[in-house]
Amino acid sequence: MAPVDIPNAGDFFSMWRHHAYHLSEQSAVVSITTSFDCRDSLLALARSATLGGVLKLHSQLDANPNNLVLCGKFPADSPEGIQCFTLPNATVLVRIEVGTGPQYAGKARVAVRSSEPVVALAVRDDLLLAFAELPVDAEPSDPNFDSGAAQGRRLLASSCDAKQWSKAVSDKFARQHTYLRLSLTDKCNMRCQYCMPPSLYGDDNDEIKPPSANYLTADEIVTLASEFVNDLGINKIRLTGGEPTVRSDFPRIVEGIAESCGQRLGQFGITTNGVVLERHLPVMRAAGLLHVNVSLDTLVAAKFPMISNRPEAYWRRTRKLIDSLRSDPDFRLKVNCVVMRGVNDDELLDFVELTREENLN
């Protein structure tokens, strides 16, 4: 074991920002109960995160005094109790950042970077497991720590199931994913020529109706979203299709996701053609589904039937929705446009002008 001594903040952040370390980051967000001093809770976390002295705590490397930094090296002869540290001289950098503001208060972010991605992943998991399994009656073993943090360990351990966070979704480059897109259906109430032309998909109107038996039920979708958010570290969900609003149980899905995911869900959004969305705005507002991407391929009503194989009345509904959401401070609105040569490419500057207004991207 060889804890690393880093003399100053400049040296630490030079390593922290180096691409070899940055690309390997593994992180997790843990809940910190607000019934005791947040600094004590972070000290309790850091006390268990030293992994028996393998990682060295540095108290003044971060500009924020509430943030904690730990560093270490794991040679090839690491003890049997530390898993996966088999790569010689793999340097590990750890930052524990306390959340601030109404959205992040009561939470801390644990980030691990290493010269070896597999080591970053293993250390992140072992840190969280060590934290969750720390005996509540253990006394501090490091004299440099403040006393009286046993309560912090007890409350922290009860408020975070690190075994669940250790299953965070990562790719082969050890990057953690926090964004989930849920396709509620492949049905749509339009027949755009570039997506679902009538010649291939028929001209059924796919109006609002219950989903068929081969689709996930509303309860199954809510359960899936809850598992990803509460167990796998997802904090952003977008509902897509097809057109998600053609499901008659759309309100039930929205309310269920909001209720089951709670504050762990930082951003809730939808991609829609907007034709029938207006009737759902009260439910969406109450559920926090406030990020709305509206598909609109032309600003000229006469072009709309040629593009979508639907009447101009659909276009007017979507334009009315966009105007309504632009003036609503609760919603974050974006407009998606598929550019087609000889069809709507002459409208590019008009779309740019449209986005000059407030609350529209």
Automatic annotation (TrEMBL):
Gene Ontology molecular-function annotations: 4 iron, 4 sulfur cluster binding; cyclic pyranopterin monophosphate synthase activity; GTP 3',8'-cyclase activity; metal ion binding
Output the SUPFAM superfamilies linked to this UniProt entry.
Radical SAM enzymes, Subdomain of clathrin and coatomer appendage domain
Q: Mind telling me which Pfam families this protein's record contains?
A: Radical_SAM (PF04055)
Q: Give cofactor(s), names only.
A: [4Fe-4S] cluster
Ranges for domain Radical SAM core: 172-361
What are the record keywords, sorted? 4Fe-4S, Iron, Iron-sulfur, Metal-binding, Molybdenum cofactor biosynthesis, S-adenosyl-L-methionine
Pathway annotation: Cofactor biosynthesis; molybdopterin biosynthesis
Q: Name one GO cellular component term.
A: membrane coat
Q: Which residues form a coiled coil?
A: none
Record InterPro entries: Aldolase_TIM, Coatomer/calthrin_app_sub_C, MoaA_NifB_PqqE_Fe-S-bd_CS, MoCo_biosynth_MoaA/MoaC, rSAM, rSAM_sf, TBP_dom_sf
Q: Which GO terms describe its biological process?
A: intracellular protein transport; Mo-molybdopterin cofactor biosynthetic process; vesicle-mediated transport
Q: Name the PANTHER family for this protein.
A: MOLYBDENUM COFACTOR BIOSYNTHESIS PROTEIN 1, MOLYBDOPTERIN COFACTOR SYNTHESIS PROTEIN A
The name this protein goes by in its record:
Radical SAM core domain-containing protein
The species this protein was found in:
Perkinsus olseni (Perkinsus atlanticus)
